[in-house]
Design a protein that fits this description.
mainly alpha, 26 helices, Cyt_c_oxidase-like_su3, about 800 residues, Four Helix Bundle (Hemerythrin (Met), subunit A), Cytochrome C Oxidase, Chain A, 2 domains, globular, electron transport
């Protein structure tokens, strides 16, 4: 019974500490599964005779599925979940916060990772149906594969990305708004600084990958080509993927750097040298990381100007990283270093990170990159960095283990595991780099020539050493959890508080964690969304029809999506509404005993502001992709535009005027509320929602059928593909805005929001203005033809 109570406690918890433990547990599961994929690859390569197995010749699809799943799982599942888990465990304690800013959303974010993980690994079950997409999901592999497993992976990416974006916003609000007032920003924990920088990247870098995944799904099932020829351009996917992919590396590296910064200074017995420089360099790395993605594409981009520009920015990102390394070494100089296992892991992080950085400086040199691209040298470089991240995570797990569990790990076993991981990892990745310099290509299921086979065989041997070290580390953790020596002072087991660096900063307020099952229910119900969408697509998509799944078709799809929405309505009705009724006479949030610190902008407005920012990134990705297609596919776009039916007409003008007018009625509603006139507020709110409904209904039930009647249908041309994708996405946001207004009306009626507390109404108004502003961009782009007016990319006759 005790076990069942414990399980129920974790299933219904909103406590960041327990959620952090669940994140780390899930990340370890994904680490083991991804490791099995890597092990299968190494054994396959070692067992394959050299000289024959090019990707086109090798018949074993499972090898390429293992390669695809290993890379994606290590980045998007294991590493991301481990970072978020450590953030949940440590950030509130290091900044004196009572919890994360949104406890319920924090729990929801975790439970969304569960269906994302299930969908992701379920893709492996369909490896015989079609080719693997590769871990970068490059078109045309991802667009032409007939395996439904590709779609399960894409939906897993979308759900996981949504979860991580919410987590990023949650961390930003926690650090900026729940940090103890007596902790100045520049004196804040270096790990909290790194999580703040990584969270900014989550909000800005993850939405483009979700957008690209949706575009892949539309292309695979509805023929709306964006990436595959002859209509689309496969380089566009590379741009989208690496615009996400390179910041994603820093989403993982920055928290690892924060952990190193925290633990090195504690184990050296002195405050970090250049504390402020280390903190600010995290933000600098995050900022520059968005300007380096194209160095992954030097072989695909032929123009010299972007090559030179991105070579410079790639070199520039090494500067703030170098600042950190210099300050870490300066911190060690003169310190009283304790060479315990956590410190050994952190020092080895420095070794692997420096070697990884040195091997990385070759890639901005375009002439060298052209030779090294798609060789094992790239794999060696990347795995130096990834293993460095793992060293930081393992070292932090050991350092905080006595604080989290009240028991000590076994020091001798920890040092042996460190030695095995260090030797196994360094030897494996050095052999990879050496084989790459000698010309061994990536992704091959074996050595292409006999002289390279010894390198690959040795890599496999040292992979066994690496695996043994990791297995021993995990065994040590599990064994010590039950049998470890008790800690005398759990609050300060390492005795570091005396140097001014406490591991726990007590919050000024206490927090309640009442059991709440709805994040668990609604988060896991997310698995119904891909099931419902793919069921709806069965009548249109040969891939879905031939998969042998989703036999219920459209009725089952509608049922699945309806059940999912019903869970959302139930959460609203049976949990949130009751909570609002309790809180309507309070100024603070229900999970805190006293009100939160006063706000300059307002709680909900700040939250919605970050949501709007992430939504803007989504639209910016799609709009910029449309303009990219216009320039790169100029002749195809021009030919399609010549047969374009008139978009600008009485209906589109009336719809646009109605939507833009609703911004003024929304302002009038807010002003009426502030003046205390609820009657006028409801009147203006009804006008706002009426105008929004007119826009949405006109678009979906009048404009679309008319355009399709003239042959302008999704999939008919590159112009139609972008038009319907962007305009439909905007229409979906109009519906979200209408739901937001409906919730606002309910909450005003319940007395939660009113003249004295108008933040919800103001937040809904700002979101509505955002929706109206996006329509200005779309109306100008398509209806006024701004995108069609772009001149040819090259002068005539050039």
């Amino acid at each position: 019974m005790h076990v069942l109570e414990k399980l129920l406690d974790y299933l219904t918890t909103t406590d960041a500490h327990k959620i952090g433990i669940m994140y780390i547990t899930l990340s370890v599961i994904n680490f083991v599964l991804a490791g099995v994929m890597a092990f299968y690859m190494r054994l396959t390569i070692a067992a394959t005779p050299p000289g024959s197995p090019t990707p086109a010749e090798f018949p074993d699809r499972l090898y390429y599925w293992a390669m695809s799943l290993h890379g994606l799982a290590m980045l998007l599942l294991f590493a991301t979940q481990a970072v978020v888990g450590l953030g949940n465990l440590l950030v509130p304690k290091l900044i004196g916060a009572p919890d994360l800013y949104w406890p319920r959303i924090n729990a929801l974010s975790f439970w969304m990772q569960v269906p994302a993980t299930i969908l992701f690994w379920s893709g492996a079950l369909f490896w015989q149906q079609g080719d693997a997409p590769g871990w970068t999901l490059y078109a045309p592999l991802s667009t032409r594969s007939q395996s439904i497993g590709v779609d399960l992976i894409l939906f897993g990416i979308i759900i996981g990305g949504f979860s991580s974006t919410l987590t990023g916003i949650n961390f930003i609000l926690t650090i900026t708004r729940l940090r103890r007032p007596d902790i100045p920003m520049l004196d804040m924990s270096l790990f909290a600084w790194s999580i703040l920088a990584a969270s900014l990247l989550m909000v800005a870098a993850l939405p483009p990958l979700a957008v690209g995944s949706i575009m892949l799904i539309l292309e695979r099932h509805l023929g709306m080509a964006f990436f595959d020829q002859p209509i689309g351009d496969p380089r566009l996917w590379q741009h989208i993927f690496w615009f996400f992919g390179h910041p994603e590396v820093y989403i993982l590296v920055l928290p690892a750097m924060g952990l190193v910064s925290e633990i090195i200074q504690r184990m050296a017995g002195r405050r970090a040298y250049g504390y402020t420089a280390i903190a600010i360099s995290s933000v600098a790395i995050a900022s520059i990381s968005f300007a380096v993605w194209m160095h992954h594409m030097f072989t695909a981009v032929q123009d010299y100007a972007p090559r030179i520009a991105f070579a410079i920015t790639t070199m520039a990102v090494a500067i703030p990283s170098g600042v950190k390394v210099f300050n870490w070494v300066a911190t060690l100089y003169g310190g009283r270093i304790r060479l315990k296992a956590p410190m050994l892991f952190m020092l080895t992080f420095l070794l692997f990170f420096i070697v990884g950085g040195v091997t990385g400086v070759f890639f901005p040199v375009v002439t060298l990159d052209l030779h090294l691209q798609d060789t094992y040298f790239v794999i060696g470089h990347f795995h130096y960095i990834v293993n460095a991240i793992a060293f930081a995570a393992f070292g932090a797990l050991l350092y905080y283990f006595p604080h989290l569990t009240g028991r000590w790990y076994h020091e001798g076993a920890a040092k042996i595991s460190w030695a095995l991981i260090t030797v196994g990892g360094f030897a494996t990745y050095t052999l990879m780099a050496a084989a790459g310099v000698l010309g061994s290509p990536r992704r091959y299921a074996g050595a292409p020539t006999p002289d390279l086979y010894p390198y690959h065989a040795a890599m496999t041997v040292f992979t066994f050493v690496l695996t043994a070290g990791i297995a021993l580390l995990f065994f040590n953790i599990v064994w010590s959890l039950f049998n470890g020596r008790p800690v005398k002072n759990r609050e300060d087991p390492w005795g570091t508080a005396k140097i001014g660096l406490p591991d726990v900063v007590p919050p000024l307020v206490k927090t309640h964690h009442e059991p709440n099952p709805w994040p668990f229910i609604f988060g896991n119900a997310m698995i119904l969304v891909p099931f419902g969408v793919l069921s709806l697509l069965k009548g249109y998509s040969p891939i879905v029809a031939n998969s042998g799944l989703f036999t219920g078709g459209m009725p089952m799809g509608i049922l699945a999506l309806g059940v999912f929405l019903a869970f959302g309505v139930a959460w609203l009705r049976f949990d949130l509404v009751g909570n609002w009724l309790k809180m309507r006479h309070m100024d603070g949030a229900a999970h805190f005993e006293i009100p939160k610190p006063p706000s300059v902008w307002g709680d909900l407005k700040a939250s919605v502001g970050w949501v709007i920012f992430s939504e803007f990134v989504i639209f910016a990705t799609l709009i910029s992709s449309a303009y990219y297609a216009r320039v790169v596919l100029y002749d195809k776009w021009t030919a399609a535009a010549e047969h374009l039916p008139p978009l600008l007409g009485p209906l589109s003008i009336a719809m646009s005027i109605a939507l833009w007018s609703s911004s003024f009625t929304a302002m009038a509603a807010r002003r009426a509320l502030l003046s205390g006139s609820l009657g006028r507020f409801y009147g203006w709110l009804a006008a706002t929602m009426g105008l929004g409904l007119f826009f949405a209904a006109g678009q979906f039930f009048a404009e679309y059928p008319e355009l399709m009647h003239h042959g302008f249908a999704p999939g008919s041309s590159i112009v139609a593909n972008y038009f319907y994708t962007l305009v439909t996405l905007h229409g979906f946001h109009v519906i979200i805005g209408l739901v937001f207004w409906a919730v606002v009306a309910v909450m005003v009626r319940l007395g939660y929001w009113g003249p004295r507390r108008p933040q919800g109404v103001e937040a809904a108004e700002y979101y509505w203005h955002f929706v109206d502003g996006i329509w200005v961009l779309l109306f100008s782009t398509f209806y006024l033809g701004l995108i069609n007016a772009i001149p040819p990319p090259y002068a005539a006759g050039a």
